Amino acid sequence: MKRSLSILAVFVLIAAGWSCQRETPDVRIIPEPAQMTVEPAMVKFPARKVIYTSSKDSSLLAAASYLGKKLNYTSIENGGTNPGHCIYLEVARLESANPEAYTLKTSGQGVVIRGNSARGVFYGIQTLLQLLPPEVYGDTGLVSNKGIRIPQVNITDEPRYPWRGMHLDVSRHFFPVEFIKKYIDVLAMHKMNTFHWHLTDDQGWRIEIKKYPKLTETGSVRKEADGSTYGGFYTQEQIKEVVAYAASRFIDVMPEIEMPGHAVAALTAYPELSCTGGPFEVRTEWGVSDDVFCAGKEATFAFVEDILKEVVALFPYKYMHIGGDECPKVRWSKCPDCQKLMKTVGLKDEMQLQSYFIRRIEKFLIANNRSLVGWDEILEGGLAPEATVMSWRGVAGGIDAARQGHDVIMSPNSHCYFDHYQGDARFEPKAWGGYLTLEKVYSLEPTPAELNPEEAKHVLGAQANIWTEYITSEKQVEYMALPRMSALAEVGWTPKSLRDYEKFLHRLVRQYQRFDAMQLNYRVPTPVTTAGSYVFTDSLVVDFHNPLENAEILYTTDGSDPQVAGKVYSTPLVLKESVLIKALTRMKSGRTSVLVEIHADKQEFRPGIRLAVTKVPGVDFDLYDGLFKSVLEMDNKKPVSRGVMTSLSLPDPVPAKPFGLIMRGYLKIADPGIYRFYLNSDDGSTLSFGERMVIDHDGLHGATEKSAEIALGKGWHGFELRYFDAGGGKSLVVQWSGKGIEKQQIPAENLASMSTQVMIGK
Asked: What pLDDT, on the 0 to 100 scale, is given for residue 5?
């Protein structure tokens, strides 16, 4: 009776605190809920601080404890049924069968969150937190409830996909436990449920294995170019600590132990498990090594299985990632042990040997109640019977695996590699290469249209990856992840029909405030224009779009730093002469974006020429063998072949080895005008007209696009297009737009071979 009176007293005090006031709420939730009704009213929080749960279930109490710390609530009560006028958390059967579904209702009667599971309740809590002031995300949580009001909402929500993941590579650069926890907190606020922890690679072994101590004694340390050493690893106790922390935020941790390739750190410690016997050193260079685990030695499989036994004991999640990517077969092709095994078990090539390796590991994992996940290279030579494929080289591998009846996680490098640049490489932190904007991430559709409904069921969801070859600090990880993680979170959670990029940007403004409260180093969006360069013949109007509310654009037109001498942008700029505009965004907090440069070039129309014959198709080409890092390296080299191509594209067939290509020809312009050209290439490319370089897209990089304009007069114009492929992806797409021309590939009738034409005048 005494306890009942105490609870009743608390109830009376709480009831006195809850109320509603008419007002138009400003609700900005990421990811956008599946169904939400917002009433024109605000709910005032109570002065007394109690959270009630429907049961003493440990998972539900963990969710309640998480919320209590954020709100600075003093107690959690197991109230059984909802006493009203409180925050009430309940696991209950909802209309949706989705185990992660939840409902959230706020009113003058209190806050009620129900979920099909404690995990669903936790996601409802994440939504509730986004209804509160951003300060709730600070180290001390919500400091005071005095005057705090939240929107009155009714939300019914569930994720679109069951796999919503983020990856972090700690092999190339190591990050301490406290940062890993902070990273997990960011995943939690985005309702992500999988942390992919990349623990081993050529450049470092980061997990303690008690049976093989040299893996961390030797394999976790590398020599740097300046003579210093770099290293670090997690003890098994630290691993357990991280896994438990993630579990308290309803996040599963999937370890990645690389095999059979990316194994130099392990082979440095145990060289006898290689094909050559070593010796080796932990790699200091990035990229791929020919030295891999020897697939022909039984000792290799005993070693790997011993490691996986310890890993399985540390990670309760059912999925285990074994890599399986980028495994050169050079050593296997010359290894007597590998060749003997291939002959013994009837394998026709080294691709099948890789499949043999993966299948043996999968059999071991299944025996230990785990499921194998690998990058899409595990398709090569035949897919292991129950493997899940993580498709990173585009979506083709995922499509192939789904059609074979295998589960798929979409992680295409075109949309999900957060180690790629977000803007102009001159002003952004050093990155691997490529170019991946926030909008491109948001545009990802994890389920390819090529799959039928049954095949589509195998698409578990999406994941983004942060490889850390050039990411050396915690702040840089945050910068590369945010706000792109917010975009990916919405891709994985929100119904496709509700996704709207402009509305997402509007909601993202509040997300930045939450990031500020968490002291995260997110990327501030740069000022937006339609292009990074313009050409004009008379005058030009340049209009900036401010990407943020309550922020300003600073700019200069004399090439100076806008942070020092910039003017505040208010109206479009009218230009009469060539200028270099520099601009940045400055938030109210003082945080600024990186620079953007806009080249405005006043030109006269470049005169065209007349040709004697205009219907000889194509352009001349010179093809070069070799590994180039710049298109300029083809100068003074002899081509291995030459001829005429019918279009501006890769040669047919495309060379298997790295190569260079120079194309020369004439382009027909029917009407004088300003024309924009687009080069999308992997790797470098350039386009020039005579002495004028129009697009410089040179260097090593992934498939990205650059564009620029030039003023061209009527007639034929000589041009030169250069391209090189240094391995990996091979792509070259040339397009144009201009007077009466929508963006498209250049038609064959507008091209003429330089070697077969005779100029007859201007």
From this structure: 36
To 5 degrees, how large is the angle CA 548–CA 554–CA 557?
Answer: 135
User: CA-to-CA distance for 338 and 353, rounded, in angstroms?
Assistant: 8
Q: Residue 57: what pLDDT?
A: 92
Spatial neighbors of 590 by CB under 8 A, at least 6 apart, are none
Architecture of domain 2-157: 2-Layer Sandwich (3.30)
Which stretch of 37-46, 449-458, 633-642, 657-666 has the lowest confidence by average pLDDT?
Answer: 37-46
Q: Are 234 and 207 in contact (CB under 8 A)?
A: yes
CB-count exposure of residue 612 (10 Å: 0-12, 13-18, 19+): exposed
- Shortest CA distance to 251 belongs to which of 483, 39, 52, 62? 62
First-to-last alpha carbon distance for the chain, in angstroms, is 104
Distance of alpha carbon 335 from alpha carbon 34, whole angstroms: 56
Choosing among 2.60.120.1560, 2.60.120.460, 1.10.2020.10, 2.60.40.10, the CATH entry for 610-761 is 2.60.120.1560
- 376: closest CA among 363, 361, 392? 392
- Of 515, 535, 533, 536, the C-alpha closest to 524 is 515
- Measured between alpha carbons, how far is 435 from 320 in angstroms, rounded to an integer? 30
Q: How confident is the model at residue 14 (pLDDT cuts 50, 70, 90)?
A: very low
How many helical (H) and strand (E) elements, i.e. helices and strands, does the chain have? 19, 42
- CATH class of the domain whose range is 533-602: mainly beta
Convert the pLDDT of each residue in 19-43 to its tens digit.
777 778 899 999 999 999 999 999 9
Which residues are known catalytic residues?
201, 262, 326
